[in-house]
Amino acid sequence: MLIEIILIVVGIAVVLWGADRFTDGASGLARRLKVSELVIGLTVVALGTSLPEFIVSFMSVLRGSGDMSVGNVVGSNIFNGLVVVGCSAILINLKVDKALLRRDIPLTLVASVLLLAFVASDNSLSRVEAVVLLAFFGIYSWVTYRVAMQDRRAAGEVKEETTPMPKLLLLIAVGIAALVVGGRVLVDNAAAVAREFHVSESVIGLTILAAGTSLPELVTSMVAARKGSEGLALGNALGSNIFNIAFVLGICGSVSPLTVTDITLVDWGMLVGSTLLLWLLAWTGKKLNRGEGTVLVCAYLAYLVWLLAR
């Protein structure tokens, strides 16, 4: 048990270090490519910080654990929408871009409802349904690409970046590697500790694995918020949620149909409800202040208490 606890601390340290490198590289890349930090957050950063979710969910599929695979994604998305965004807003008031309100939050909600509809019908995600999720991801990627091209035409609004491109790419690559390795060490050992207390796989997926694999999103968004990169902080959380559902479960379900038996209506309600709550709070004043961030975090804590009591 002592070794696992030491490795958990090491994993956290590696994730923190990687998030700082990754944020610097991604912010510089946005300026270098003359696109907004929001677009980079929704794409490069979201993909990088979603790698732990992909690794954990894919390995769970290979082990035949659909509950852990889907639970990891559902729990991670709830964590992203409530804790990642909430903690970032507590750290600094976040200005919410109009594009997030009109496009990215609604698309996140659509992805969540789509997954719920697929699984609720027969407690499984079939290969055909997984392909539909991948198609949704393709459409989302195309829309984001169009936005990036529009940003480049408005390049005058983005300040110049003097850091050489190879150094920026190296920072991103090193950051991603540290996030994945640190997140993996953290998750493996946290799950091992949880199993010592005989916690079910679905609850492990919804809590330990979800929080562990979302740690890169949490640290990256908080570091970005602290550095004033609000678009990067919010884009990372929302982009990761779409990646998790449409790409991660799309790939996993295409490899093998996922049977889901131990995720409750409350869990699904929190998945959809957390996005609705975030959308509602973001509309008020077109920003998320510290009080609203506290509401988001408290909502997650209440859900966590319910999970542990269950």
Verbal overview:
This protein is an all-alpha fold and 310 residues long. The chain has a single domain (2-309), classed as Up-down Bundle (A middle domain of Talin 1), CATH 1.20.1420. It is 83% helix and 3% strand. The chain has helices at 2-32, 37-49, 51-62, 66-91, 98-122, 127-153, 165-196, 201-226, 230-255, 265-283, 290-309, and strands spanning 94-95, 124-125, 258-259, 287-288. The strands form two sheets. The chain has a two-stranded antiparallel sheet. The chain starts with a helix and ends with a helix.
Task: Spell out the key features of this protein.
two-stranded antiparallel ribbon, 11 helices, 310 residues, A middle domain of Talin 1, mainly alpha, 3% strand, single chain
Give the helix tally: 11
What number is the mean pLDDT? 84
Quick one: overall form? Answer: globular
Gyration radius, in Å:
18 Å
User: Which CATH class applies here?
Assistant: Mainly Alpha
In helices, the fraction of residues equals: over 70%
The name of the CATH superfamily reads NCX, central ion-binding region
- The low-confidence runs, each spanning 5 or more residues with pLDDT under 50, are none
- CATH architecture level-2 label: Up-down Bundle
Q: Which fold name fills CATH's third level, the topology?
A: A middle domain of Talin 1
Distance between the termini: 25 Å
Main beta sheet: strand number and arrangement? 2 strands, antiparallel
| Share in β-strands | under 5%
